[in-house]
Amino acid sequence: MKSFSYMRARDVTEATRAAQRPGSKVIAGGTNLLDLAKLSIERPSALIDVNRIPGLKEIRRLPDGGVRIGALVTNADLAAHPLIREHYPLLSRAILAGASGQIRNMATTGGNLLQRTRCVQFYDTSDRCNKRAPGSGCGALDGANRMNAIVGGSASCIAVHPSDMAVAMRILDAVVETTDAHGAHRRIPIDDFYVLPDAAPQHETVLTPGEMITGVSLPAPPQGMQSYRKVRDRASYAFALVSVGAIAAVEEGHFTRVRFAFGGIAPKPWRIEAAEAALRGKPRNAQAISTACDIALAGAAGHGDNDFKIALAHRTLIAVLGA
Amino acid sequence: MQGSALAAAVAQTGLVQAAPPDPDAARDALTGSFSIVINSAPHQMTVDTRVTLLDLLRERLMLTGTKKGCDHGQCGACTVLVNGRRVLSCLSLAVMHDGDHVTTVEGLAEGHGPDAKLHPMQAAFLEHDGFQCGYCTPGQICSAVGMLDEWRNGAPSLVTDDLSAHPELSPAELHERMSGNICRCSAYPNIAEAILAVSREGA
Amino acid sequence: MPQAPDALLPAPELSAPIGPGNVRREGHSKVTGNALYSVEYQPDQIGATEPILYGAAVLSTIARGRIAAIDTKNAQAMPGVRLVLTADNVPRQSPWGPLNAPVRFARSQPVFFDRTVRYFGEPVAFVVADTFENATAAADLVSVRYEPLDASIVLKESGGINPAPLHGGKSADSRTGNFDEAFAQSPHQIDVRYDTPYQNHAAMELQGSLAHWKDGKLTVYAPAQIPDAMQEGLAATFGLPKDRVRVVARLIGGGFGGKLPYFSDSVACAIASRILKQPVKFSFTRQQMFTATTHRPAVLHHVRIGVGADGHIHALAHDVVSQTASFDNYLDGDTMGAKGLYRADAIQTTQRIARLDLPRSDSMRSPGDASGTLALESGIDEAARLCGLDPVEFRLRNDTQINPSTGQPFSSRHLAECLRQGAEKFGWSTRRKRREGEWLIGYGVAAAMRDNMLRPSSAEVTLAPDGVLVARLAMTDPGTGSITVLSQIASEAMGIPLDRVTVLIGDTDFPPTAGSGGSFGAESAGSALYEACVALRGALQSKAEVAAGTHLHFADGALIAGDRRYPLGRLVGAAGLTVQGHTAPGMEAKRYAEATFGAHFVEVAVNAVTGEMRCRRMLGAFAAGRILNARTARSQALGGMIWGLSSALIEGNVVDPRGQFVMRDLANYHVPIMADVGAIDVMLLPEIEPVANPIGIKGIGEVGINGAGAAIANAIFDACGVRVRSFPITLDKLLPGLPTLT
């Protein structure tokens, strides 16, 4: 790691002002930032520690039946919170499917949303990567790409967003709340929060320099069974090959409302509302689910090692939504 | 932020050391000061900002019981308890722990040296042969102590069927909850036995 | 050694373990965090007055070529930097090799000695600074310009060469009977190809060293499984007499063969320490370990089995090609199982190596056998199914007490008992292949064999006037339990209570041993220590001046002669008494084939939707000679079995188009975590090895892995009908064969 200055911010204003300086980075749990800094993938010259900012560790009920989650709530606390367990079990389960007990004790809600891809080429500073070194090319397209995206990627990047939590939040229509260095607040629907790589994969979110996540709010949960299923190469402590989160209401064998999204296959949580609409009123069977999956994965293509993810996504969705 | 603005920030926030106007031109390592309680002993430290909690323990305080197995949060060997919760000391900067209470494997037993009275978890690992080479062991033990606390507090895991209930510590629950600690010798069955034994004793 | 007078002194008896076995003697220090590993010593603990400096390595980013230039200016200018070592300024060292050294772990291994790059991730520079943070930051600023050349990085059958010329003409092939003829005439034929992947040891302790020069003598603290080989290697590298190099390896944070060789960390630290006149320590990062140390080679296997109508194997061939580095000759022993597991009229094995521009391959837990039995024991399952025979019955039918390749009788072989008793305990005959919801349940079995080896070793025992026995030997304990079982051997042989026995290991200042590896550790060092104890008993007997014809024995810290009791401490005088013992393979052993045997039974669940696999239940039954300590022996077996599970389902590395290993950390290179491990049971069958050594034991460190993976692969086939012949069996390989969802 190259040297950096360290500042313990006392409030959001101080943090965002400091964080907008070039080279500055906000640090909360640190589980991803330090991992990357040790490999010289992130090279901050100043770290702004936001962990002591008061008021960002609360989970509270909103008048509309939703909840607001402070940006510094740890993954462990969020997953274990009674409100989340009762009303958003999908979110609890998605969080618990990620990382390890120790990491969930450290990682925060805001940091989880902002974690970067685990693409092996991104992690190898001797390899080509347009996300890490714009213009250098993509080593995954013609190299090892078992863990890479089958949808949403581009000719410049096929990295996957690794978060499980974000998949659940996408299904729950989460809104990301931010404050920038000028004190302006934004409420950004999570789908708008992430940007697809296109020609500039170094840009992953719509955050502006210094802009900081202060919390996430979830509207009241929709009716239906909530579930999260993660398929991976070992039984725990591994990133997803494919994960599926869903909320489904079924009456008399037919879907009345369905939401679903995939993790592990795209640069952001992959939810296509048109695919959900296609299931409404349809019988709960493999054919209907598979048809909806085709819509969700329209244009999906493997790159060699990850070809299997298309079939695996179909099968996993059928298992999650099927009888 | 530059020059006087930075100086103001220092005064305001307790910024640990003034960065030069252009931090990229920094030649000298930047340092930070903080106080920390480790195994009940208070320390006032000034260290390079880059020093992780793990390297603070191992290389500055000579508490080498906490191990470096990957330095990237992928093995669990560096697990310690910070304010009672199990965390990875490799993915945490020392300067971030101002005012924190850290317990390492050296702080679990009562007393020091060969006559130290073992923590029940340490005794169980010894009795059940919950290790071979011993390198992951401090992390396993700290993790197990933290994990049992989480379980007693009713925290769910990935394999908890009913999220509204307080789960039993079944083998499946235990295995999932301890999966952040790799043991390459693969003493897992014995580690699980050791932890289950302690969980039953209620220690 | 004093001549024993003719009082009656029977050979010391070692009792079979009673109860669970002693806890590990170094266990207290390990669970309290007091155990010190190599790079954890402080200056005062190594006799240094100066602080210890920190190293950091720079690795190559091409697979083959030449270093055109290394720019170290920026690194040199960083705070705290004391030295940047490259090919431009490295002191002269001996050339690498020799290739065909008697002990390949004792070869000279100079660092940065030329400008040739031989593999991706080869160390090319070494930075030393006052702190870890400064060293690693500076290493990042070393800039290397390469002139790349085309590299050969893909393992192909056609790329194999006969390794004999690289091994002094010694062939690894075997041929018994006429395979082609026997195979052609067999009514049932299996002719299949398997591949097993690159694997990395991934011991939890990072490979690292602490080097210190004092008064012209080099001491290196390093996790060396064989300290004596490393001492010899370092001495050769630096052109020093051996007595000016000391290697200390008191504890090792996991070895698995990955610490049989020594690596550039030791050499670079030693050079830097000499130049800077200060101790220097350095551990590779986890990422660097994947290329800068060794790995298990990928292997291509061709297995052919011809079976008669009666279910007897008529013809068996196992032909392999394994990777080795372009400049090396490492040969994985993949065909050992085919040579010795089953009786067959004709057996043919060939071993070829492909010299590729990849990092060095070398021994990894049960080298050769681990990969070889994945292929062979899967093939045997295929053959049994083809013949319509139960796979246990098929193996029993082809069991033998004579090594079919050499004609030697096995000194002890209880494979059939392992199969029968294991099957009984597992409930093999009542197994029921079935579906439980999404999960397809299946069962598998495989046999295990691991050659037994005794290597020359020595030990020294000192009995002090207070009756405390201290044993010294340059043995190591990478988690195998050596310290514990050696203590037991000395305690039982001398009749001295365990708490009055201290075993000191891991130091080349002690008598040389074969170290730990190849399952030969406990047997070789244990036999040497036993012989030392025999000598000490003889010496004590002389001192006691017992009347001829008196029956003698040693118990409770005393020599008992008839009704007289001589406390041992009083017999040795103020100076104490020190004697040595040695062991080496005897002539008797050459007449026999020696091996440990076992059988694995597993129950797996395969998810019919996703292809996820879970190993629900494993049972290993082993006949490994006398068990010195049931607790540590069981742990060794468990560890091996979980490694087998990993080889079947989880573990394997791949090479990218540049020649770089794709998986270079523990997030990508998966090893089993606790959730991967289901119920595991170990049976240790009573057996005394009658020939190999005076203590009746055989190796147990590796047999657990052999066959365990194949049993799982066979169970997966049983569960879902998909035979995957490319390991590991990841779920993507099963998906095409799983039922369509309706």
UniProtKB/TrEMBL annotation, chain A:
Origin organism lineage: Bacteria, Pseudomonadati, Pseudomonadota, Alphaproteobacteria, Acetobacterales
InterPro entries documented for this protein: CO_DH_flav_C (IPR005107), CO_DH_flav_C_dom_sf (IPR036683), Diverse_Substr_Oxidored (IPR051312), FAD-bd_PCMH (IPR016166), FAD-bd_PCMH-like_sf (IPR036318), FAD-bd_PCMH_sub1 (IPR016167), FAD-bd_PCMH_sub2 (IPR016169), Mopterin_DH_FAD-bd (IPR002346)
A Pfam family reported for this protein in Swiss-Prot or TrEMBL: CO_deh_flav_C
Gene3D superfamilies: 3.30.465.10, CO dehydrogenase flavoprotein, C-terminal domain, Uridine Diphospho-n-acetylenolpyruvylglucosamine Reductase, domain 2
Record keywords: FAD, Flavoprotein
Protein name: Molybdopterin dehydrogenase, FAD-binding protein
Molecular function, one GO term: oxidoreductase activity
Annotated FAD-binding PCMH-type domain residues: 1-223
PANTHER family reported for this sequence: ALDEHYDE OXIDOREDUCTASE FAD-BINDING SUBUNIT PAOB, XANTHINE DEHYDROGENASE SUBUNIT C-RELATED
Domain of life where this protein originates: Bacteria
Automatic annotation (TrEMBL), chain B:
Keywords associated with the record: 2Fe-2S, Iron, Iron-sulfur, Metal-binding, Oxidoreductase
One GO MF term: 2 iron, 2 sulfur cluster binding
Span of domain 2Fe-2S ferredoxin-type: 32-108
Cross-referenced PROSITE patterns: 2FE2S_FER_1, 2FE2S_FER_2
PANTHER family: OXIDOREDUCTASE WITH IRON-SULFUR SUBUNIT, OXIDOREDUCTASE, IRON-SULPHUR BINDING SUBUNIT-RELATED-RELATED
Protein name (record): Oxidoreductase
Originating organism: Tanticharoenia sakaeratensis NBRC 103193
UniProtKB/TrEMBL annotation, chain C:
GO molecular function: iron ion binding; oxidoreductase activity
Domain of life where this protein originates: Bacteria
Gene3D superfamilies reported for this sequence: Aldehyde oxidase/xanthine dehydrogenase, a/b hammerhead (3.90.1170.50), Aldehyde oxidase/xanthine dehydrogenase, molybdopterin binding domain (3.30.365.10)
Ranges where the Aldehyde oxidase/xanthine dehydrogenase a/b hammerhead domain occurs: 32-150
Name of one Pfam family that matches: MoCoBD_2
Coiled coil residues, start to end: none
Region (Disordered): 1-27
PANTHER family according to UniProt: ALDEHYDE OXIDOREDUCTASE MOLYBDENUM-BINDING SUBUNIT PAOC (PTHR11908:SF123), XANTHINE DEHYDROGENASE (PTHR11908)
Name by which UniProt lists this protein: Aldehyde oxidase and xanthine dehydrogenase molybdopterin binding protein
